[in-house]
Protein: 3-hexulose-6-phosphate synthase
Organism: Methylotenera versatilis
Amino acid sequence: MALTQMALDSLDFDGTVALATLVAPHVDILEIGTPCIKHNGVKLLEVLRAKFPNNKILVDLKTMDAGFYEAEPFYKAGADICTVLGCADIGTIKGVIDVANKYGKKAQVDLINVADKAAKTKEVAAAGAHIIGVHTGLDQQAAGQTPFTDLALVAALNLGVEISVAGGVKAATTAQVRDAGATIIVAGAAIYGAADPAASAAEITAIAHA
Ligand SMILES: O=C([C@H](O)CO)[C@H](O)[C@H](O)COP(=O)(O)O
């Protein structure tokens, strides 16, 4: 059993709200993707928070510096999870963990571009990270990479932290990543690129929840 998260990666404010309206009943977590939050800011989070009280909301800040200071306004506005880059300074990562704890929320450390993912996972888990994000980014996917080997590596550490997996996951690979130990399964393009995003989200969630 894993939760599902839909990545909202459009830059368009109204289009994002419209897509979230279609998909929200069929996923556990709505993600405001990095380009989307940079373009639209905390106002979009406030709108989604008010419209979708039954979904958790992840804000994909991918924070690189000033962890506590950057993430606090988003937790204050209703984010349940904010992300911080694993390649950031440990002080930055601890800042996001601290502010998440202050609001009773969660911090996710994104392993994108981290060279030694096992060592980083152990370090940030010991620092109190709530979720480890195994992530093959859009540019890495374009170069042919997938998250599956990294997921196996992180899951094998058995550290008792939640593990999120993102990077081109679709219905056909959802059972594979669920069985490999992901507790949160992220899908972006597989849902927003589908002819029927609600049906695609429902299909992925049915597999993830099995
Ligand atoms: O985090 C993401 C990306 O780096 C842009 O910020 C995506 O939201 C994430 O990769 C999920 O999208 P898909 O890979 O299209 O499923």
